[in-house]
Amino acid sequence: MNTENILKELNFKAIRSSGAGGQHVNKTSSKIELTFDLENSFAISEVEKELLKTKLSSKLTKENVLIVFCEETRSQHRNKDLAIKRFLTLIKTNLRRPKIRRPTKPSKASLKRKSESKQRNSVKKALRKKPKPD
């Protein structure tokens, strides 16, 4: 994955931000919509594309376009930087492959320790009971 090439393929769109802000919010477009076409990207290999499609399936559109919004600040430039950071962390975290879990068997010594401790506990609890009348 080459981040420089990916950044060249990003598309940005400035939209009017929602919420409070008075007159300022009505006349400025500070919300940023970042779009990335995963299907037609040249910066990501086919294997990585398939991995991202499966992991990001809920965030992708039907055309396999990833959309990230950012409207945290009143500055369009800061929102753009935040959207890029969010996008890159999203891509990097979803490209990481999880470690393969190798199932292990408990050792004979650990099984023996476990059964001995269970036996000790059962004796301890049996001693707490009232003695049976003979």
TrEMBL record:
Q: Name one Pfam family in it.
A: RF-1
Q: State the SUPFAM superfamilies in the record.
A: Release factor
For this protein, the record's InterPro entries field holds:
Pep_chain_release_fac_I, Pep_chain_release_fac_I_sf
Protein name (record): Aminoacyl-tRNA hydrolase
| Residues spanning the membrane | none
Alphabetically sorted, this entry's keywords are: Hydrolase
Q: Which residues form a coiled coil?
A: none
Residue ranges annotated as compositionally biased, kind Basic residues, are: 95-105, 121-134
Q: Boundaries of each Prokaryotic-type class I peptide chain release factors domain copy?
A: 16-32
Q: Where is this region: Disordered?
A: 95-134
